[in-house]
Structure formats: structure tokens, C-alpha cells
Amino acid sequence: MKPSSRPTVARRVALSAVLCALSLLFSYLETFIPMPIPGMKIGLANLIPLLLLPSLGIPTAACVSLLRIALSALLFGSPVSFLYSLAGGTVSFAVMALAFKFRLFNLTGASILGGVFHNLAQIAVAIPLLGTARVTVLLPWLLLSGTVAGLAVGLLGAFLLPRLPRSLFLKPARKEPDAEPAEPPENDP
Hints:
Radius of gyration: 22 Å
Order of helices and strands: HHHHHH
Strand content: under 5%
């Protein structure tokens, strides 16, 4: 996007708030999906920052992602779940943002990387928190699930992005000031 086509600050904040709420809703809904392995998730909440990367840029996507992680932990998590989510979300987002910024992968590839690195970061946090490296036994399953979930979210993002109205991410059109009314014609006798 050209800098001149960026949305106004107020529009960006409003759009970010709505998308953060949607991401938070996805995160909440995922708590009801039973998973066979602790820490395994679909990562649907990451769809929103993934869509924001190419549309509103890295800073806005990062803010939405971090705000969602904090609100999710505050509303239906715990301090420990916050640490896992923060580590996984931060590393995942950083890897996706770098992959996208340097055009190393398309949206789906960046999402797969994000899913894999999310699980790697969570294992890295689990080892000192639990005081054992035995949690690494879950790593192959988490890496597989991160790959599959990243693929699913990435394909969904790649499907949705071109179908989103471009006007959603652009400045509203400026109204031209009303032209001065034309002089009434003079009446000639």
C-alpha cells in the first residue's frame, strides 16, 4: 500500500479494536475444542494478525496480537497461561512478520512457520517453569500440529485476504468542498 492510502489514525484504531475483539472471540472459542495433547491449539486467533500483516502492516498487527494475548489471559486464563501465550505469540508473530517482510514465504508459508515457532517457544518456556526437559517428548506432536494448524490458518487467510473489501483498509474518500453556487442568469428585457 502507498503511504497516502493508509487509513487515518482514528480509523486504524477503530478497525484494530474490532479485529482484536474478533481475535479474542476466536481465542475464547478455541478453549471449547478438546485437544489430545496439552498446549495443542488450532490458532484461529492468529488469523487476524496474519491478515493485518499485508494490509495494515507489522506495527498494527503486533499491537492487535499482543493486546489479544493480554486480554485473553486476563479474561479466561491464568498467569502461567499468559507466559505460554506471550512466548508463543511473540515468537510466532516475529517469525511470521520477518518471513512476510522479507518475502521469504507467502501468507500460508508464514503461517506454518508461525505455528511451528509458537510451539517451540512454548516448550522453551515449559522447561524452566516445570523444571524438567521431559516436556520435549511432546515436541514431535506439537510440531506436527503446529504445521497442520499453520497450514489451515494460512490457507484460510490466503482465501479471505483477497475477498476483504479494500476500502476497509484505506482512508475514506475525501469529500470535495461544495462548489460556490453559480450566479443566477441576469434577466434581459
